[in-house]
Amino acid sequence: MSRLLSLALIVASVPCLAQKRWWMEEPIRLIQTNLRETDSNLDAKRLVDQLVDFRANVLLFGMGGIVAHYPTQVEFHYPSAYLPAGRDTFGEVLEQAHARGIRVIGRFDFSRTQKPVYDAHPEWFFRRASGEPFIYNGLYSTCINGGYYREHIFRILTEALTRYEVDGLFFNMFGNPRSDYSGNRMGPCHCAACRRLYRERYGGELPASDDDPQYRQFLDACAREVAAEIGKLIKKLRPEASFNTYIQEHVDGIMSESNTAVDRPLPLWPYSASDNVNYNRNSEPEKMAINLSMSFIDYAWRFAAVPPNEIRVRLSQAIAHGGALAQNMHGTMDQEDRSFLEAARPLFRWHAEHEDLYVGQENAGRVLLLGPRNDSYRGFYRLLSEQHIPFRASSNVRTLLAHPREFDLVVATSQVPAELESWVRSGGRLLVAGLTPPFGIDGPVKRWEGVRGYFRIRDHALFPSLRQTNLLFLYGDYLEFAPEARPLLTLIPPSMFGPPEKVFTDKVETDKPGLILGEIGQGRLAYLPWDVGALYYRYSSHHHAGLVADLIDHLVDGQRQLRTSAHPLIEITVMRQPRRNRTLVHFVNLTGHSQTGWFDPVPVRDVRVRLAGSFEAARWVRGARELPLRHESGAGEFTLPEVSGYEVVVLEGGSASAPLD
Fold first, then answer.
1. Rounded distance between C-alpha atoms, residue 141 and residue 154, angstroms
2. What domain range includes position 70?
3. pTM score above 0.85
4. Based on the structure, what is the number of domains in the chain?
5. Residue 602 has what DSSP assignment?
6. DSSP 494-562
C-alpha cells in the first residue's frame, strides 16, 4: 500500500534492447522484490537465475532512500548496515540482469530517514500540530515541502542515475501519507514550509483534519510539483528511461496496487486489478499501467500469502485490460510461503509464450465510466461488467473529446464535466446517477436525507427487466425535482414498517420523480437523482441492476456492442491492436470468488459471443484452433468452448469500435 511513484527505464547497457518508449512497445513481466536491509548480502546470480526461470523480464529492486543497497557517497544517505564491505549489491544485480536481457528498476523511498538527518535539518521534516516530528520504528517522516524532498533527494538521484544505467526508478510512499504502517493517522503537516505555502495559496491556516478536501488538493499539487522535477532529472540523465508513479501527471507509466488489509471494510472488491488498469490506461492512454499484485495479507503478515486464485485473477485482469503483468513480494524470491509464486508462474509463462497479444492493446469499449472511484463508481463498474457491456473507465473526458465517434454512452456518478455538453448535443447519450444534477436539468426542489422508501414503476414498457415488480427500494439521500408530465418512477416516502399489522398502512403515493429522461439537442439524457450505484455496490439488488440495464438499452436504442450467454461473473474485455489490425476478446472467470474467499473457478462452457464489427477469422489461443465465425446484422458471432480461468480469442481484421447505426 505504497502512496506514490514507480517504474522508469533505460537500457543503454543492453543495445539489443534499447528502444524509445519501450514500456509501451514491449511486453512487461515484472517482479518486485521489496528488499529488507538484511537482504543486502543476497546472491545476485541466484536471484537473476530465478527471474529467468520465472520468465520475468523486468525487476523492481531496492536501490536507496531509507536504506541504500549500494555504496552511496551522498551526505545523509546511508548504505545498509548489512551491505558487505567492498560489495555493491544493486550494481551486481543490475549487471547480472542486463546480461540476461532483464530490465532493472531501482526503488527509492524518501518518506522517512534517520535521526542524524533530523538533527542536522529539522526543517526538512513532517511536524504534528504539536510541533513534534512523526517517528515510526526509529525513522523520522520527511515532508514533501521540506528541503529533503525539494532539494536533497536530487543529489541522491543524480548520483544514482549517473552511476548506474538503470532501466527505471520507483518511489515508494511518495509525498505525505495519511498514516503510518500501523494505521496511526498523521494529520496535516505543520512544518514551516507547509504553513507558508498553504497560507500563500489559500489565504488561511492549515485545517485541523487531513481529510479536508482543500488540504488534499494542496498535498496533491505539492506532490505533482516534486514529481515534475524528478521527471525532468530522469529525462536529462537517462533520456530513454520511463518515469512511473502512483500519480497520473508527469510520468510515463502509472503505478497501482491490488492488495488486502484485515480491517478493510467489506465487501471485498474483486475487480481491483481490472479497475486500476482500466482507469489508469484510459485516463492517460499514452502511459502504461503497472498494477502490483501484492503477495501478502497485510503489513503485519508480509510473509503470509493471499489465496492463489486471488493472485491468478489479479494478474489475468491486468493483462486483459492492457496493463503490465506485475507481482510483488517482500524480500527475495526465496519465500517461506511459495503458494503465490506457484499461482503466478503459469501466467508469467503464458505471457512469455504469447507476447504479441500484450503489446499495443487499446480498450475498444464504447461506454465511458467517469470517476471519482467511490462506492457509486464501483457499483456501476460491477453493473457494466456483469452486463458484459465493454467500457473504459477514466478520470477525464479527453479521449472522448478527441475521438467522439468512438463512444455511444457516458456514465457519471458525480459532477459531469461541462465540456461534455457539446458531445451530448451532437448526439451523445448520457446516464447520470447521484446528487449532482447534470447540465440540462433545472435545480432541485428539495433534498431528502436518509430515505427508507420506494420508487413506484410507472412504465413497465421501458423496464422489461422489472416486469415482476412494481417497486424499487430506496435507502439514502434523494433530490426532489418538479413533477414530470409522464412520470416513469415516483417516490413513495418512508412509511411504517412494524409491527406487521401496521406495515404500509400509511403509504403515500407521490408524483416526485425518481428518473428524469430528456433530450438535449440531438442527444439523450437519463438522470437518477439518487445513488443507485452505491446501493448496488452494497446490496446487489437485481431490480437496481435491471433498472440500469434497461436505461442503457433505452439510451443506445438496444444496440449493445456485445451480447453473450456468459455468466455474469465471466468478465469480458474487448481490446484492439491497431498495428496488427485485430481485436482481442479476453475472458476472466470470477466464479471462484465468494465474499472473502477465492476458490477454483467453475468452468463455463459454450460461451456465445456477438460483437459489433466485421472480422475475418476467430482464433481461440489456449485451444490453439480456429472457431467458426459468422456475421449477421453488422456483428461477428462465435462460440468459445470453455472459459476455465483466463482465455483470449483473437479476431483478425475488421474493427470492434465501429459506431452504432
1. 18
2. 22-360
3. yes
4. 3
5. P
6. -----SGGGTTTT------BS-EEEEETTEEEEEESB-HHHHHHHH--HHHHHHHHHHHHHHTTT--SE
Is 4 part of any domain? no
Report CA-CA distances (Å) from 233 to 224, 240, 277.
14, 12, 27
Residues of 374-388 as b/e, b for ≥16 C-beta within 10 angstroms? eebbbbbbbbbbbbb
Give yes or no: residues 109 and 179 share one domain: yes
For residue 448 the three cell numbers come to 431528502
Q: What is the Cα–Cα distance from 621 to 300, expressed in whole angstroms?
A: 41
Count CB-CB contacts under 10 A for residue 150.
Answer: 17
Mean pLDDT by groups of 10 residues along the chain of 661 residues: 34 41 95 97 98 98 98 98 97 98 96 98 97 97 98 98 95 91 95 98 96 96 96 94 89 95 95 98 97 97 98 98 98 98 98 98 98 97 98 98 97 96 98 96 95 97 97 98 95 97 97 97 97 98 98 97 98 97 98 97 98 97 98 96 98 69 37
Residue 239 grid cell: 533520456
Q: Write out the three cell numbers for 513.
A: 420523480
Residues 238, 4: contact at Cβ < 8 Å?
Answer: no
Task: Give the whole-angstrom CA distance, residue 437 versus residue 444.
Answer: 8
Final residue belonging to a domain, choices 542, 560, 578:
560
Query: What number of other Cβ atoms are within 10 A of residue 285's Cβ?
Result: 17
Residues 271 and 382 sit within 8 Å (Cβ to Cβ): yes
Q: For residue 461, what is the domain's CATH number?
A: 3.40.50.880
